[in-house]
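## tool: complex_structure
## caller: assistant
## args:
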Amino acid sequence: MSKTLTAVLAGIAYVIFAPLLGGLLTGLDRKITAHVQRRKGPPVLQPFYDVFKLLGKENASINSAQDFYVGIFLLFTILSGIFFFTGGDILMVMLTATLAGVCLVVAAYSSNSPFSQMGAERELMQDMSYEPMLLVTAIGFYLVTGSFRVEKIISGPRVNIAFLPGIFIGLCFALIIKFRKSPFDISMSHEAHQEIVQGVVTEFSGPMLAMVQLAHWYENVVLFGIVALFFVWDAPWSFLLGLACCAGVFILGIVIDNSCARVKWQHMLRSSWIMTLAAGCVNLLVLMAMR
Amino acid sequence: MKSFEKKSPWILHYDATSCNGCDIEVLASLTPRYDIERFGMVNTGNPKHADVFLITGSVNAQSLPVVRRLYSQMLEPKVVVAVGICANSGGVFRDCYNVLGGVDKAIPVDVYVPGCAARPESIIDGVERALDILEKKAKMLHDGRLQELQEMDKLPPMPDFSAKKEAVV
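## result:
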């Protein structure tokens, strides 16, 4: 099978199966969280029921700009995933994902609701917190494998994590912000009704909210893909190692989510940048010295 | 098979001048003992996301506009559950000069849950019954009868307190 055909098939598989996988992960997350709190919890398929219900609700948006930007948010999120799973440039993946994130912020800013505006501002703070770490990760992969392309990163002769332990720890920290888990779920939280209602998504309703939810599922699959990059090299069985480590990060995220309270944005920004410098940049310097 | 509306009802809870007895019971149904999330119910706190509007308390002049605004911000299909005897009829406060006496004088109500305070079991049962009505309304929406549905759920005229105040004076 030619390389192009494999890439196209991987891209198509991503577009079809990523929402299924993402929704299932969200369902598992809710179920495990419920068991941690000694509750029975919703069925594992609950996120799918929620999305189908939202699609069936009355369609009402604040303005047409909001529809447009939410649509672009979903589109660019899917596009960044396609770049990733077709073995494309990892910088391209991250920049497209950033563009998608900015579209979500603009969509939230387009309404005059104070909760939506505050959510948008907090979302920007979150973007500022995790973005440097994602770039450091991309540079780290380049220093180890000599390429920004995902297909080259996963087919190197050595396992990437051996050279990038600091960057991996830093990335896990950034992923907590990306997955919107406590202690960094400041822009959109299921538990922050009293202060920000639902933050960025306050003004989205019905089918629009379903689209935002779908985009998050696509996004989560790409993020787990980036985690797997650390553990995959040219040995075929290393994909299993990658999957196992993604499962480990998933469980770790749930444990942290259930054992932490939400922090202020100042704390989030400070700690994530310190983490980027201490774990990410130090790792980069060591790699540069080794070359 | 149940419709998706029945499997995923998101709840908005508002305290319209309640003594907090019913509110505590509403929140108790979220706790591990009753755990309403196993029915897919989530306490959203946002009228634009909610399907079920849970109201406790007798509604007075101050909370009346809030109740009406929250209700009109909810999107179809939507149902209203009045929790506790104050929300049903005003309860022991019904003759107070500032009390409207029942949520159904402010907005259309679908299900009445009696009790002082209403027990978590009866609140959950009330929401389950409201879901049958929600399913019917969702079916109307899917059949393209949105206008008819909006006509059915439209706000009644703003209640007037003046007669009640004069009676007291």
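## assistant note: Chain A has one domain: 3-290. The radius of gyration of chain A is 19 Å. Handing back to user.
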